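Hi P.,

Sorry for the delay on this. The queue was packed all week, but I finally got your sequence through. Input first:
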Amino acid sequence: MLKKEYVDKLTEILDENRISLDVPMAEWTSFKTGGNAECMVFPKSEDEITEIIKLLKENKVPYYIFGNGTNTLVRDGGLKGVVIGLYQHFNRIDIDEETGVVKVKAGALLSAVANLSCRAGLSGIEFAGGIPGCIGGAVKMNAGAYDGEMKDIVQRVKVMHEDLSIDEYNTDEMGFEYRKSNIKDGDIVLEVTIKLGKKDPNKIRARMVELSKKRKEKQPLNMPSAGSVFKRPKGNFAGKLIQEAGLQGYTVGGAQVSKKHAGFVVNTGKATAADVEQILKDIKDKVYEKHSVELEKEIIIIGDDE
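Then the structure:
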């Protein structure tokens, strides 16, 4: 358990009601599995984030940055140290309807940004309306869907580095590629500025409804998962390769390769994180054996084995 002295120091930075101890991470991840975090905190501002990380670094306490937990598997042994949750309070969205410029704090949900932009008659982020994560993580991995990617709309990104220095980068400096950017693992996206175009809100909404319908038809949205678990191999599709390897419906414990979309691994109800990890390993091995293609994980796995 995190030492009381560190918890006491955290209360000097945050209100006590924004500090939680022994937190079940199954409640904070879309996989709905995994162990407990020793401590979870919910900052509201850049200053609070800076002070929290400074304190933890000085005392060599490990920490993790969390958005909405939609792309993360927490191992069954849980997380030592502190989880810094951005989605709850660090999520402001400022829209300038005249210029089409939208400034978004890292913890804001992509769906919220897309919906508010639609109401303002701003187009370009429709593709992201059904992506369940936060904008900070989406920019770091250049998230995309239905022929759209974050790189298409991002203007500037404000980033905190491991040494707590802060820089801003324009699109060209971000090094966007398929599901990657120049944001390093130790960096934290603080704020994203995107640029959208004007359009009839009814036409924007119609496109978002159309994409939502496609997702519901093709993806197992009724079961806990973390979306596509593997990146798309060059010139192919992970789901297709997994299906051709005979793995659709393949089950380990409570984890299963989705019967609806082979690119998804779902929790059928009582999956452990170890079940999910094992199924990911089996998929990689069998796809390589069948196709000589090395699949690369799209999800993040953190924490200790039980």
